[in-house]
Amino acid sequence: EVQLVESGGGLVQPGGSLRLSCGASGFTFRTSAMHWVRQAPGKGLEYVSAISSNGGSTYYANSVKGRFTISRDNSKNTLFLQMGSLRPEDTAVYYCARGPLVVLGGYFDHWGQGTLVTVSS
Amino acid sequence: SYVVTQPPSVSVAPGQTASITCGGNNIGSESVHWYHQKPGQAPVLVVYNDGDRPSGIPERFSGSNSGNTATLTISRVEAGDEADYYCQVWDSSSDDVVFGGGTKLTVL
């Protein structure tokens, strides 16, 4: 069974940093592109970032470019999102999701349960 | 960037058919994927590549895509189908992923 478990969320002050992790199991992690999608309270889904299976390609939404960094450790089946210069508008539940391809693109066939990030003073 | 538009809400009686649309410029040339999300839960893929169903998704869920509109159709709607539904497209020119704003399906 595919499982994705996010961790690392919490309350952080504006301008602060946070590192999210997503532990994966039940599939061959190193052959799947991975993605981060967020959802602000009461709002819709927003695509944040993606990384190809070998880490060679990445994508960032304009709203987070230059502030967030996506990475992965295929030896530990773990996806990361390093978030910096956080703003109140980054407040959201952050989901990691698996893509069906080794490269970016397509759809998301499995999602984690999400971790809440709150940016507030 | 590419924009897709969904109606904010759709209502349907139990046993009837619900149609949720996703509009976009020449969306018929793109692959459209659909998710449902119940309150407090993560999204779940219900249709991918316009009309394919993941394992475990009932045949009542189907999709089509042509011209400027993609449609998710839910036949014989049940109370448990009540959720927010999102369409999604991958913009290959930019690697961006675009979600519709979501449609709240209410089962009367």
Question: What order do the helices and strands come in, and which of them pair?
Answer:
The complex is a heterodimer of chains A (121) and B (108).
Chain A (H helix, E strand, L loop, with lengths): L2 E5 L2 E3 L5 E8 L8 E6 L5 E7 L6 E3 L7 E6 L4 E6 L8 E7 L11 E2 L3 E5 L2
Chain B lengths: L8 E4 L5 E6 L8 E6 L6 E4 L13 E6 L2 E6 L8 E9 L4 E4 L3 E5 L1
Parallel strand pairs in B: 1-9
Antiparallel strand pairs in B: 2-6, 3-4, 3-7, 5-6, 7-8, 7-9
Describe it.
The complex is a heterodimer of chains A (about 120) and B (about 110). Chain A is mainly β and about 120 residues long. Helix content of chain A is about 0%, strand content about 50%. In chain A, strands 2, 4, 5, 6, 9, 10 and 11 form a 7-stranded mixed sheet that branches. A 4-stranded antiparallel sheet of chain A has the order 1-3-8-7, with no helix packed on it. In chain A, strand 5 and strand 6 form a beta hairpin. Chain A is globular and about 40 Å long. The mean pLDDT of chain A is about 95. Chain B has about 110 residues and is mainly beta. Helix content of chain B is about 0%, strand content about 45%. Chain B has no helices and 9 strands. In chain B, the strands form 2 sheets. In chain B, strands 1, 3, 4, 7, 8 and 9 form a 6-stranded mixed sheet that branches. Chain B has a 3-stranded antiparallel sheet with strand order 2-6-5, with no helix packed on it. Chain B is globular. The N and C termini of chain B lie far apart (about 35 Å). The relative contact order of chain B is 0.34.
